[in-house]
Amino acid sequence: MTTPEPTIVTLAPVRAAVVEGTGVPMTAIRDFFDSSFQLLGAAVAQQGVAPGTAAFARYAGQPTDTLDLAVGFGVGPEFVATEEVSVMEIPGVRAGQLVHVGGYDTLGTSWDRLVGWLQGQGEPLADWFLEEYLTEPVPGADPADMRTRLSYPLATG
Question: Cα separation of 101 and 6, whole Å?
């Protein structure tokens, strides 16, 4: 199997249902994802809305011991925010993109590769980035079958 190459693409804008977290400890990230996707699933089911995109995480700033992020998926205009699930407009932007093949524990290597490639192209990076989970993480899944699309928006003006 060949390793996917980084590219520059234009991301379409997305209206998304999200659960936001500020200062989420890295040690609690799995629990945050699990509880957030339970809340999201309940909200869209209650409203009879189907997700319009793959599940994603939008990260603000660079991760440290904590993360500021929003997890969710695209929804249409019929979705109404709830007490626990908000609506976020993710802008359409130019971005560097790479599909990571493998488990989540090796995402950092692909992020480093994408960022290094963009810096080598002289592209300025925005202050946020996305992971789109193209394959659903299920118990017992083979990490070799997992795909995560990494998108790093390019700073403008």
Answer: 13
Give the helix ranges, DSSP H, for the chain.
Answer: 29-47, 107-120
Q: What is the pLDDT of residues 111-145, one digit of tens each?
A: 999 999 999 999 999 999 999 999 987 777 788 88
CA distance 87 to 16: 6
Alpha-carbon torsion angle 69, 75, 78, 82, nearest 10: -30
φ/ψ bin of 39: left (φ > 0), alpha (ψ from -120 to 50), beta (otherwise): alpha
Instruction: Specify burial of residue 56 (Cβ count, 10 A radius: 0-12, 13-18, 19+).
Output: buried
The model carries a pTM of 0.92
